[in-house]
Structures are given as structure tokens and as C-alpha cells.
User: Fold this.
Amino acid sequence: MRNVLLIISLLCTMLILPLQITAQQKGKASFYSKKITGARTSSGERLHHDSLVCAHRTFPFGTKLKVTNPANGKEVIVRVIDRGPFRKGRIIDLSWRAAKELGMLQQGVAMVKVEKYVENKGIPFKQETELPELDYEITNNNDGMTPAWQEKKENAKKDDKHADKEK
Assistant:
């Protein structure tokens, strides 16, 4: 009986956790100081204050997140490269530049909305360039119908033979 309860609780956790990760979150955001530039993050990358990156507790490394500051409506797309924040009540740590673009440098900590960013790449294999319109011309010969391009090709061969004979 104990094993059945354990399995059920594990299954519930596995089903609920992805829903929590994809849901939008609202909470406090802070940002890294410029002095931390060059430090290694949990993913192994070095942090630079001018890059659009962040730290999040649950999203996988490399995930792009859209962070919105509801106070002024500004938004920024950041990439997760670190784990954190580890202060109570905070949901994300932003790089200095991301905080600047959100207009939260003066406050230090601001309320934000965080959601997973999904790029709209359009329909796969859809040809985005227009193809030129082809004009097919049909000519009547004794041997049947020959396309104009083939006729031009045959005329060019005849012209080449005449040029060779003249030499």
C-alpha cells in the first residue's frame, strides 16, 4: 500500500511540475551588479553585465523568458544561464542590462511578470519568396510540338556548328 501511494505521489508531482514551469509567474525581480561581470554561473557561462541573461530556479538553462515590468509596460527577452534567486519572495535575477531595459535600476527590486518566450517561426518549409511566372510557348513543327526553350537550344547548336565550319 505504501508503494502505491509513493508511485501516485510521484506521478502527480511529475504531472504538476511542468504546468508550474510553463505558467506565467508574477513576483519580485532583482538584478546582478556590474561588479560581478566575469563570474561563472551555474551553467558554466561567464556573466557579462551587458548581456540579456537571467537566473531562474526552475527553467532549464538556455530557455528564453519574456519579462514584463507592469509599472511601465516595458518588456525584455532574456536567456536563463544561472540558478537563483535564493532570497525569499524573488522569482528572477536579471543582468544589469535587462534591468536597465525594464527601467528598474533606480528601484533595485521591482514587480515583474515572467513567462516562457516562444518564437513564432512560421510554417515549416513554407517558401517565402515568390517564384517567377513561367511563360510556355508552343511551336508546331513537322515532328510534333516542341517547347520554345528546346527550339532555342537547337538553334544555338546549329549556330555553333556554322561558326565551326566557317573557321
